[in-house]
Amino acid sequence: xxxxILLLNVLLLGxxxxxxxPADKCKLEDSSCMIPAFQKSLPIFMxxxxxxxxxxxxxxxLDDLKFELAGLKFGLKxxxxxxxKNSIIDDVKWDVKNKKIxxxxxxxCSIKGxxxxxxxxxxxxxxxxxxxxxKLKNLNIKLILTYDIEKKDGKDLVKPTSFxxxxxxxxxxxxxxxxxxxxxxxxxxxxxxxxxxNWKEITKEFGGPMIEESAKxxxxxxxxxxxxxxxxxIAHV
Length: 237
Prior knowledge:
It contains five helices and nine strands, in the order βαββββββββαααα. By secondary structure, the protein is α+β, with helices and mostly antiparallel strands. Strand 3 and strand 4 form a beta hairpin.
């Protein structure tokens, strides 16, 4: 139910730069160089680079969210995502010919916020209005970013146009909600046990909207970064 990040996330990503204006630049299609370069740049990118149009992404503040999916109405206010700066970059493939960037990474992260819930989660009814905390262990994300090239002052700029992603939580999710069922402890305890026993199916069923929300924030920062840094300044082209 919410968990999402996601984040991913979530991360979408450290697609920051090949090192945030590195001294030793990679060739765009050299994955063996790009993977450690992305890894090195990730904490810097996630901490925010205002002069490059990159907001703070860890801890990430989420916009208020509401969605209705599979019989569940869910809202999240004052949401935060923590842990993205610790993402591990697994693969980077920059396809110059087709103007696509593929990034795979994994991360442990947590989400907090004030939730509202009404409806059903899988087979059980749920209602609540309180605080939520969700921990995701080994969230895997594969991101595909498409882009165009535009000229500015005689230099080539990457202009991201869209993104899509796949995600999977590999090693577990842990849910904690206060004030489920108007504070009924028996019903609340039973629901939390159910959520944590069925974490894999629940994260798969309800994770999309959350990950989408965090992904939009990361994508916006990626667009801002590339709008201020010609591709020739951050990599060999």
